[in-house]
Design a protein that fits this description.
The chain is built from nine helices and 17 strands.
């Protein structure tokens, strides 16, 4: 048993707001105070400290081939930012893209206990796992990119939904993925041919389906598989003035669970200067009951 004694405890779920309490943990779970404290219990003196549930970062880019590319592009990062090995901790370097151990230490120092790597292509996920395994202390998971997967697009274009669901399940099982990431659905495929998609009804070149049909099928498949996390969507027109319209459209259209990431960069209106926040431009506020905010 682990006992955290005398800390100032914050637990919003259970209505605890700064009370001085002892926390008892057994088998990895918080339990009620036992009638008798085991002789081999580990006690942490938390007097003068804050005790609270660990933070969960549902969207991070901390591991895999793209991260190593970032390290190679910023060699000066490792010369100027480093931490020496001391007090039982490993050394590390980097600020924009730290090395594996330093990444974990910095997350823990900020109060995080769980981090999700938000985009890993199936073919390179082995390396993503290798880097995550080298990060101590944290619980980790990986989202697998499927928004431009040619096999899935082929199945969906032929209305072979059950086959598409099987492919999704196989990809997650084979890669050890936690959930499905969708980036600019159909747009990456069109980019191979010098194009993109700007609306949910643009056609995905050579597949005979639209971004709308593709996304809705992926959401339906993920929900039918009862995945613990909904489809994690990086939507259309990221950073483009006026993109709030396509963002609101997908929120209204998708019938199922959807986690929208980068929403602050997908909620732009448009004025004579270019981009503006949709929350501060009433003429660009979409006609919907969804409330926009500059912090979305």
């Amino acid at each position: 048993m682990l006992i955290i004694k005398g800390g100032q405890v914050y637990d919003p779920t259970n209505g605890v707001n700064g009370d001085l309490k002892d926390i008892y943990i057994e088998g990895g779970k918080v339990v009620n105070p036992p009638e008798r404290i085991p002789d081999d219990a580990t006690v942490i003196d938390a007097r003068g400290m804050i005790v609270m549930p660990g933070g969960v970062d549902m969207h991070a880019h901390i591991a895999g081939s793209k991260v190593n590319t970032g390290r190679k592009l910023c060699p000066e990062d490792h010369y100027e930012h480093f931490r020496i090995a001391e007090k039982g901790l490993r050394s590390g370097a980097g600020s924009r893209v730290p090395t594996t151990f330093l990444t974990a230490y910095r997350y823990v120092e900020m109060g995080y206990t769980t981090v999700v790597e938000a985009a890993s292509a199936p073919l390179v996920t082995r390396h993503t796992h290798e880097e995550l395994m080298d990060m101590p202390l944290l619980d980790k998971a990986i989202l697998i990119t499927m928004g431009n997967n040619e096999i899935l697009m082929d199945m969906i274009s032929q209305d072979k939904f059950d086959e598409a669901k099987d492919v999704m399940a196989w990809l997650l099982n084979s890669t050890g993925g936690y959930g499905v990431k969708v980036v600019n659905p159909g747009g990456v495929e069109n980019w191979k041919w010098g194009g993109n998609v700007q609306s949910w009804d643009d056609e995905v070149k050579y597949f005979g389906l639209t971004s709308r049909k593709l996304l809705n099928a992926l959401v339906e498949a993920a929900d039918s598989l009862k995945l613990p996390h909904s489809v994690h969507l990086h939507g259309l027109n990221l950073g483009v003035p006026g993109n709030v319209e396509t963002t609101v459209e997908v929120i209204k259209d998708v019938q199922g669970r959807l986690h929208l990431c980068h929403l602050q960069f997908l909620s732009y209106g448009k004025d004579k200067r270019g981009a503006c926040t949709a929350a501060q431009a009433p003429s660009w506020r979409p006609s919907t009951n969804i409330q926009t905010s500059p912090w979305m």
